[in-house]
């Protein structure tokens, strides 16, 4: 598996300084979530380093990559450019940097939208990206608070706020984002019943 040091070098070259700083905060936040909720620390930290690898790739280039890849959901091209960097990032990391680890690639692919049935590791990266200390949007604190309660409560708060934000702007919501939301609602209900 790629070392953290290698990931750091790759990502420092791929990203602008501000985005690199965000990345480091996501690594640290993910680490804190692992401390609290468990999970494969090494893989999570590696995925956190690499998660925005494709953030500055040309949208047209990313779209043509999607069209030639069977593993990418076919309706993705109907959606906004912002969504592409997660799926394409996983693809390019494999091709360009030799990242083979399935769990790491899965965390990266789902970090923007989430999905139904997220693993513990995927939940941690999804949430860490949303609540890292550099996030100052309204609702960031509410998500941080929910993250103290449980990992699922944190993800649900992030997911619900993201969906409201997108609906407020009247942009399309990717099906996996809605499926993540519904799945997290179900998990939270179960958790509350069992308390
Ligand atoms: O890459 P980051 O900025 O660190 O964060 P991210 O990967 O969570 O990307 C956030 C962007 O993704 C934000 O502009 C909203 C957008 N986004 C997330 N889910 C959806 C979405 N955009 C659309 N259209 N539909 C979604 O379901
Ligand atoms: Fe991202
Ligand atoms: Fe990010």
Describe the structure.
- There is one protein chain.
- This protein is mainly alpha-helical and 195 residues long.
- It has a single domain (4-194), classed as Orthogonal Bundle (Hypothetical protein af1432), CATH 1.10.3210.10.
- The chain is 68% helix and 0% strand.
- The protein has ten helices and no strands.
- It has helices at 4-14, 17-37, 41-50, 59-67, 84-97, 102-109, 120-131, 140-149, 151-168, 175-194.
- The radius of gyration is 16 Å and the shape is globular.
- The chain starts with a helix and ends with a helix.
- The model has no long low-confidence stretch (mean pLDDT 95).
- It binds 2'-deoxyguanosine-5'-diphosphate (DGI) and fe (iii) ion (FE) (2 copies).
- Residues 22, 26, 51-52, 129 line the site of one fe (iii) ion.
For CATH, the homologous superfamily is named as: Hypothetical protein af1432
Instruction: Estimate what percentage of residues fall within beta strands.
Output: under 5%
Please give the largest β-sheet: none
Roughly what is the average pLDDT, rounded to an integer? 95
Count of extended strands: 0
Could you please say which CATH topology applies here?
A: Hypothetical protein af1432
The CATH class label is Mainly Alpha
Structural class from helices and strands? Answer: mainly alpha
Overall number of structural domains: 1
Give the helix tally: 10
Helix content: 55-70%
Bound molecules: 2'-deoxyguanosine-5'-diphosphate, fe (iii) ion
Apparent shape: globular
- The first-to-last residue Cα distance is 39 Å
Low-confidence stretches: none
SSE string: HHHHHHHHHH
Computed CA radius of gyration, to the nearest angstrom: 16 Å
